[in-house]
């Protein structure tokens, strides 16, 4: 399947071209992209054509085009993932979500969050299996826009005073370097094979009072629906979506999920293993995410939460919760509510 990205990312290019009184329509057409798709929030453009677009846009303007376009990022640029980001409980929570669902934005890229003692690294790199050679051509403007957008996203959560500890850029120093460094307000290391932002652990783990688990869950389900359509051959996204939809009823059985996807349990097991996951790991991930939401709701008893997550007994839920968090559900709830 050809790697693609949300058209809302291309909308940043259109807006910046238009602000400079350039013929955005002609530049999009030259890149082989239909501007009419920009009005469809769920539409996608091939990454190969997007690389051409960024190159044409920079050729028609100046080296600082990417920085300017990146500053135009807003939550709708990343569809439901942008709003899930804003509702995250911490920057770390937001970055984990971005790493988990980044393929929704651009399925030709890999997203990863690494922990190293007192710091964290968030890295975006090309997926060489999904990107054809023509799509791996470096676009300085696209790289700059990505870095600026990520920093802007973090400042929406932590405040305008936030700056990463350092940044890695996928291109050599250029005419835009001073603009990029002024925006990030940190050292920038050029010529890497990836984009990377380095964070202080305190910034990553700081609790955000704007966090809203109910909103993140709702937007994650929207993301999963789109990913399920995007990855027609990837069963895990469809299984995860089915689990999330059924879990609140407290009744999730592997046979029922398989039947709902028009296949036998054995076939589903085999195809999930081919993707490097299994039903139990997907079920546990879904349970853990919902448990974190439910435990903060004082209107739900621990026994009710256990039932909603499909546990036959409260004791089984308590053991699982301790395995996930290191503390009992009651202790976790007490500590969480004390922080509010």
From TrEMBL:
GO molecular function: DNA-binding transcription factor activity; transcription cis-regulatory region binding
Keyword check for Chaperone: no
Organism, as annotated: Ketobacter alkanivorans
Chain segments annotated as coiled-coil in the UniProt record: none
Keyword terms, alphabetized: DNA-binding, Transcription, Transcription regulation
Top-level taxon in the UniProt lineage: Bacteria
Pfam families per the UniProt record, alphabetical: Arabinose_bd, HTH_18
Ranges for domain HTH araC/xylS-type: 237-335
Keyword set includes Cell division: no
Annotated Gene Ontology cellular component terms: cytosol
Annotated protein name in UniProt: HTH araC/xylS-type domain-containing protein
């Amino acid at each position: 399947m050809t790697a693609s990205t949300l058209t809302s990312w291309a909308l940043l290019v259109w807006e910046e071209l238009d602000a400079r009184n350039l013929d955005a329509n002609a530049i999009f057409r030259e890149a082989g992209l239909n501007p009419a798709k920009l009005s469809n929030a769920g539409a996608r453009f091939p990454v190969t054509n997007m690389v051409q677009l960024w190159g044409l846009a920079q050729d028609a303007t100046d080296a600082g085009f990417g920085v300017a376009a990146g500053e135009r990022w807003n939550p709708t640029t990343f569809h439901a993932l942008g709003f899930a980001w804003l509702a995250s409980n911490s920057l770390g929570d937001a970055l984990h979500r971005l790493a988990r669902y980044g393929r929704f934005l651009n399925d030709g890229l890999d997203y990863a969050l690494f922990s190293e003692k007192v710091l964290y690294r968030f890295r975006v790199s090309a997926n060489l299996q999904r990107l054809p050679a023509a799509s791996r051509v470096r676009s300085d403007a696209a790289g700059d826009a990505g870095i600026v957008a990520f920093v802007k996203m973090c400042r929406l959560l932590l405040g305008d005073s936030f700056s990463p500890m350092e940044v890695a850029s996928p291109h050599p120093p250029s005419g835009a370097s001073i603009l990029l460094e002024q925006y990030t307000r940190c050292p920038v290391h050029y010529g890497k094979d990836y984009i990377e932002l380095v964070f202080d652990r305190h910034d990553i783990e700081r609790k955000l009072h704007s966090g809203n688990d109910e909103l993140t869950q709702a937007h994650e389900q929207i993301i999963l629906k789109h990913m399920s359509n995007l990855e027609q051959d990837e069963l895990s996204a469809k299984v995860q979506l089915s689990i999330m939809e059924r879990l609140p009823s407290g009744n999730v059985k592997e046979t029922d999920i398989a039947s709902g996807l028009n296949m036998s349990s054995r076939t589903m097991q085999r195809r999930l293993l081919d993707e490097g996951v299994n039903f139990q790991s997907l079920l546990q991930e879904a349970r853990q995410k919902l448990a974190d939401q439910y435990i903060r709701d004082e209107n739900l008893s621990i026994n009710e939460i256990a039932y909603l997550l499909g546990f036959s007994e409260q004791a089984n839920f308590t053991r699982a919760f301790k395995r996930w968090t290191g503390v009992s559900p009651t202790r976790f709830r007490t500590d969480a509510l004390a922080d509010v």
